[in-house]
Amino acid sequence: MKTQSISKLMIAGLALLLAGCGSQQTSQVKNSSSSSSSSLLVAKSNEKVSTNNLSPQQAVSLIATYAGNKYGDDWASMAKKAQKQGLQVNLYSTSKYKLSDNGQGVAYDVTAGGKSTGLVYTINKDNTVNIYQNVKAGKLSHKLATISKQDMASYVNHQGQAKLVGDLAKNAQVIDKQSGSQSSSTSSSTTTGHQYGRQEAVTVPAEMQGTWYSSDYNSNSKITFSKNTILGEDGQQYHLYKQDPTFLAGDTPSTSVQNATRYWSSARFVDVHGLHFLNIRGWCQTAGDGSSYAIHTETINGKQVKVLVVAEGAGYWTSSVYYQNPQLAKQQADKKFDDLHYMEDDD
């Protein structure tokens, strides 16, 4: 009898032990599911983002992408909306809020299309970033984290989300809304607003937007226009703004100003030789005429084809012609058209 009782007790104990293990496994599965419940904002890609020479728009996009993937919730919702509505960050004095870390005194309110949802960051003197959410004027807010841009980039690259950084940066806007704002100590990495002669963004004509290819002079090159930017042959994206005509009227801009505006370009429209050119110059360029771009139609292989005419110099002389696909560019390499104006035409 004793042996049977002991056996029954052992069986009952084993059953309880197995039930306990099953409960523990179920709990672990739930916890694992909970910890991985946040999904990526966009499909993974092999693109990589670097923190070298980030423009203000790229910096904002990196922070939005990182926070959206890392913290989810409002940051993720905003980042997803920004893909359609455009990313915009408004600059305010931190005196507007009660933040646990004011950084250098500027609060960056990150929005989709300009509507605030309480997503804010500040930047420290060592360039690390303090990230907040649910920020409300007059109410104390505690930061989610303090992190460097390098660590954010590593996380974004590991998650395969670098493409989102580039996509958001294409049309991102950084607007200084500080009352009586002057050039601030953060301008080297976040120069914005109407500083340094910057006026409104210049919109590239819709028919010019996209990627264009040329094989002229044995050189394969391409140029990409977005709504307010140009991605040049050097692989760098430049933001196009109208420039205050008095900005370059005085002394040559200081090195600090040149560094702060190195990814800005002055843009204006000029009608010459029957073409409507978009003339683009370096922001602090005091000599030379920049490069000019115009859409034109040529007859190629019996068809009307839209081309991008590139002109240089004071005479707006045609220097090359770009096409909408690389195959046609190779076929038409060094082709000169009778209705375009070349330098030799003035001889």
Question: Can you give keywords for this protein?
Answer:
347 residues; Lipoprotein; signal; alpha+beta
In short:
Residues 1-26 form the signal peptide. The protein has 347 residues and is α+β, with helices and mostly antiparallel strands.
Outline the secondary-structure elements.
Layout: H1 2-35, H2 56-71, H3 73-85, E1 87-93, E2 98-99, E3 106-112, E4 120-123, E5 129-132, E6 140-141, E7 145-147, H4 149-158, H5 162-170, E8 173-176, H6 187-190, E9 198-201, E10 210-214, E11 221-225, E12 229-231, E13 237-243, H7 255-260, E14 264-272, E15 275-282, E16 291-300, E17 303-312, E18 317-322, H8 326-331
Parallel strand pairs: 1-8, 2-6, 13-14
Antiparallel strand pairs: 1-3, 3-4, 4-5, 5-7, 9-13, 10-11, 11-12, 12-13, 14-15, 15-16, 16-17, 17-18
Helix pairs in contact: 2-3, 2-4, 2-5
Report on the architecture of this protein:
By secondary structure, the chain is α+β, with helices and mostly antiparallel strands. Helices cover 28% and strands 29% of the residues. The chain contains eight helices and 18 strands. Strands 9, 10, 11, 12, 13, 14, 15, 16, 17 and 18 form a ten-stranded mixed β-sheet that branches. The chain has a six-stranded mixed β-sheet with strand order 7-5-4-3-1-8. Strands 2-6 form a two-stranded parallel sheet. Helix 2 (56-71) crosses helix 3, helix 2 (56-71) crosses helix 4 and helix 2 (56-71) crosses helix 5 (162-170). The longest helix is centred in the first third of the chain and has 34 residues, at 2-35. The N and C termini lie far apart (121 Å). Residues 1-38 and 180-193 have low confidence and may be disordered.
